[in-house]
Design brief:
The complex is a heterodimer.
Chain A lengths: L4 H13 L2 H31 L4 H37 L2 H5 L5 H22 L1 H5 L9 H28 L3 H28 L17 H11 L5 H9 L6 H5 L1 H24 L5 H20 L1
Helix pairs in contact in A: 1-5, 2-3, 2-5, 3-5, 3-7, 3-8, 3-9, 5-7, 5-12, 7-8, 7-9, 7-12, 9-12
Chain B lengths: L1 E10 L2 E11 L4 E5 L6 H9 L6 E6 L2 E2 L4 H6 L1 E4 L11 H11 L4 H14 L15 H12 L6 E5 L7 H16 L3 E5 L3 H7 L2 E6 L2 E7 H11 L2 E5 L3 H9 L4 E7 L2 E6 L3 H13 L4 E6 L4 H8 L5 H13 L1
Parallel strand pairs in B: 3-8, 3-9, 6-7, 7-8
Antiparallel strand pairs in B: 1-2, 1-4, 4-5, 9-10, 11-13, 11-14, 12-13
Helix pairs in contact in B: 3-4
Classes of the chains: A mainly alpha, B alpha/beta.
């Protein structure tokens, strides 16, 4: 049986005793509903006077709610992951975990999953707010669900980065600060670097626009653009601003490419986190552990 | 039983352990002492499998940590100097959590937790939050946690530090019981009185290497034989000084009132002969004895970084043994 439960069970029990998660869910939903309801109310009031319903306004509300949801994830994820290993180190419990039968891989996986469960609860609890514009049509419920899934994937990527930072840091505060720095670098970095490179590139020849594939905003913005009926107009505007003309395939599959690149980043972060906290760093034992995991997976498949 | 062979560990360019070798016999209550920064914690982390050495090998009964980490770790119980407690968790839940981490599930984890809490007399506190426990209770809880796997070796870092005299006494009683039950125990501590009271064996580490190890009594005897002989005179001090100066075995002499302290390099028989000659010479000797050694004096001598002769004399004895 997969030993995933001890850390997850304890984290959930502890979190249930704390007000942090309910407060976070309440605040985040209050903000999302605030945007959704305020925007909708304004449109309904305007409809009473003009007797016309501006469907485009509801799409803007949808965009605002999604982007706010994304910002909330960016702000919340580092806080949820900062404590996971750095906090164990601060409490002096990390060494104790290493003396148990849990391997470095299991510790990282269980810690990440338990933090991600909380993040997923926060993101999913925002679904009703995301559905507010649906009252007047414009976006399908399936589209909203797809957007929710993408937000969940982005949250996982961001938390993987936070997990890696937490493994390297000895204090939670330091971990939060560095995680935020990484988030800013990942989100704004490609745009800033692309913009700078664009200044020195010939018309449309800025190759650095492909860096946007690492930006967690890319899949969200590209999908939003498609969902509100703009096609790829919004990302293309960004590419033009950066003085670049990406390959048509890149523009067409930007969501998928972005998700794949970010999944790769998440995977790399998890592997690095495991390697960092592994007591043995020589290749022989590390290779042994990978072989053991491989055998376990094979055994599970055959059974 | 627990053997460290040629362990070397670097932190960057700093060598924390330099070819450290030590052997802890089965059933021993091993006192592990050394000054701050000597490498105790690093050695303990390597023994517990928290850290791997850059060079060298750690084995329990020949089984290497790197080959069988899971089995190796199940044979070790570790109590760190910082208790390692979670907040917002109850005593019983804390035990159940670590029992689950050690591979015990459901009922087995519950039973183990209850049995060990009863053993350390915390069963009446099982519903308390961990942060509400006193320092002594936290230390007992840490001990109970370390016993979850029923380990063969218990490694404790500063277990009695900061405890009040009663709790310290109780804690030492528990350790004595565990030792009587066949557990091998390593205690790292600066409480030298506790070490000399509890331990059967000792290892002194300094600058990343073991500078002395062995049975505590043998180590004490060895160091005592290096101590000066104190001769108390009932009179004729000047004649006694003159007599001792003429003896080739007497290397140096200090006089304090009617007491003469001599550095005498000879065995017990030669000591007896010196006393006999003094009496035959008509010198009124009131008492004649070696100054008693203490763990503190051994510690000060061996970790003073200037008294090389003690280390080298030990080395000679060690190789002789």
């Amino acid at each position: 049986m997969m030993r995933l439960n001890p850390i997850i069970k304890r984290e959930i029990e502890i979190k249930n005793r704390s007000l942090t998660l309910p407060v976070a869910i309440t605040v985040i939903n209050a903000v999302l509903f605030g945007i959704g309801i305020a925007g909708t109310s304004a449109e309904v009031l305007q409809m009473r006077t003009s007797y016309t319903l501006n469907y485009g306004a509801f799409l803007k509300i949808y965009v605002a709610v999604i982007l706010m949801q994304f910002v909330m994830i960016m702000f919340t994820a580092p806080v949820l992951t900062a404590d996971v290993v750095a906090g164990e180190r601060e409490r002096g419990t990390f060494d104790l975990l290493l003396t148990t039968r849990l391997t470095a891989g299991e510790i990282v996986a269980e810690k990440l999953i338990s933090a991600y469960i909380n993040m997923a609860m926060i993101v999913v609890s925002g679904l009703p707010a995301m559905l507010i514009p649906l009252m007047f049509g414009g976006v399908h419920i399936q589209s909203t669900i797809v957007m929710l899934l993408i937000l969940l994937i982005e949250a996982f990527m961001i938390m993987s980065v936070g997990m890696l930072v937490s493994c390297y840091c000895r204090s939670s505060v330091k971990s939060i600060v560095i995680s935020y720095a990484f988030m800013i670098a990942l989100t704004a970095g490609p745009i800033v670097l692309g913009g700078l490179a664009g200044l020195f590139s010939s018309d449309g020849g800025n190759g650095l626009i492909y860096l946007t594939a690492i930006d967690p905003l890319l899949p969200v913005v590209t999908l939003l653009s498609a969902q509100i009926g703009e096609g790829s107009a919004i990302p293309e505007t960004v590419y033009r601003m950066l003085n670049g003309t990406p390959d048509a395939a890149f523009t067409e599959h930007a969501v998928l490419i972005g998700l794949m690149v970010q999944a790769a980043i998440a995977f790399a972060c998890i592997v690095l986190a495991v390697i960092h906290i592994m007591p043995h760093k020589n290749l022989r034992t590390a290779a042994g552990e990978i072989e053991l995991v491989h055998k376990l997976i094979q055994g599970r498949k055959s059974s | 039983m627990l053997k460290l062979s040629g362990i070397t560990k670097f932190y960057g360019h700093f060598c924390a352990l330099d070819k450290l070798s030590m052997n802890i016999e089965e059933g021993a209550l091993y006192g592990f002492i050394g000054p701050n920064g000597a490498g105790k914690t690093t050695a303990i982390k390597i023994m517990t499998g928290i850290m791997y050495p850059d060079e060298g090998e750690v084995t329990i009964d020949g089984m290497c940590l790197e080959d069988e980490p899971e089995i190796y770790k199940s044979m070790i119980g570790y109590v760190p100097d910082s208790f390692g407690m979670y907040s917002n968790i109850k005593v019983r839940e804390y035990m159940q959590f670590f029992a689950a981490c050690c591979g015990k599930d459901g009922m087995e984890a519950d039973k183990t937790a209850d049995r060990l809490l009863e053993y350390v007399e915390l069963d009446n506190r099982s519903d308390y939050y961990v942060e509400a426990l006193s320092r002594g209770m936290k230390q007992k809880l840490a001990l109970a946690r370390a016993l979850i796997n029923d380990p063969r070796i218990l490694i404790m870092d500063e277990p009695t530090s900061g405890l009040d005299p009663r709790t310290r006494f109780e804690f030492k009683q528990i350790l004595g019981e565990l030792s009587d039950n066949g557990k091998t125990i390593l205690i790292s501590s600066h409480m030298l009185n506790d070490i000399s009271e509890l331990c059967t064996d000792i290892g002194i580490i300094d600058q990343g290497s073991i500078v002395m190890s062995g049975r505590l009594q043998e180590v004490m005897r060895l160091v005592t034989s290096e101590n000066p002989i104190i001769i108390s005179m009932a009179g004729k001090i000047t004649q006694a000084i003159r007599f001792l100066k003429e003896d080739d075995s007497v290397k140096s002499m200090t006089i304090k009132g009617s007491d003469i302290m001599i550095n005498f390099f000879g065995n017990k028989k030669e000591e007896a002969e010196l006393l006999k000659r003094m009496i035959e010479a008509g010198l009124p000797v009131r008492s004649f004895s070696r100054e008693k050694g203490s763990l503190e004096s051994i510690f000060m001598q061996l970790t003073g970084h200037g008294e090389e002769h003690v280390t080298s004399s030990y080395d000679a004895t060690e190789s002789h043994n």
